[in-house]
Amino acid sequence: MTALDQKKSNPLFEILFNVFLPSFILMKLSGDEYLGSVMALVFALAFPIAYGGLELVRNKKFNFIAALGFISVLLTGGIGLLELDTRWLALKEALIPGLIGLGVLGSTFTKYPFMQKVIFTPTLLNMPLIKEKLAKSKKEGELENCLMRSNYLFSMTFAFSSVMNYLLATWIVTSPAGTAAFNEELGKMTLYSYPVIAIPSLLMMLGIFYYVWRQIRSLTMLETEEIFRFK
């Protein structure tokens, strides 16, 4: 894999292709004098699908959450093109984060809880030193309890997202699928989902990471530069 392939996604491009461009097309170009409701929906959904496909090609790696996002886009398109009841859209919006949350919660009862797999890794933390300090103070169990609690909290952020997605969809998208009004409302819902759902969820997750970091510092008496691998 080349250095270009390993390059991380640009958040600005991600928001542009997955939020702003689709929302603009749905809200401004769905009228019969422009693209029409069907073609506007197809063009709008083509951006996140193409972006997701490009990321898959670049990373050459299957990502479960990215796959769910790809399926979510296809389901949205299917609901619009098949002119299904808008209740299906609300259920779909709640389903994706709900499934992720259940996956995170279910991992708590496996050998590899999600938070332990994501945070407690040699690529992020100075594992030999942390384990040495924990063994000396006999606090390995306390850290495991911390990671378990953080796993529960992390799953709750997806539960919040699931409920808010459902409420936002039922509040905003009320017009029949397949109409220009439906497309406009879909674009508005996509825009609103960032300040109403994505940003609060991100702040919750940052709070969880902060909690884990504080616990590791407290249990090991290590400084931040000793805990993390910065190189």
Q: What's the layout of helices and strands?
A:
Elements: H1 11-28, H2 37-59, H3 64-81, H4 86-107, H5 114-118, H6 127-137, H7 140-172, H8 180-220, H9 224-227
Helix pairs in contact: 1-2, 1-8, 2-3, 2-8, 3-4, 4-7, 7-8
Characterize the structure shown.
This protein has 9 helices and no strands. With 231 residues, it is an all-alpha fold. Helix 4 packs antiparallel against helix 7.
Average residue pLDDT = 82
Strand content: under 5%
Oligomer: single chain
Rg, Å, rounded: 21 Å
Helix content: over 70%
Q: What is the approximate shape?
A: elongated
What are its keywords?
single chain, 231 residues, mainly alpha, 0% strand, disordered N terminus
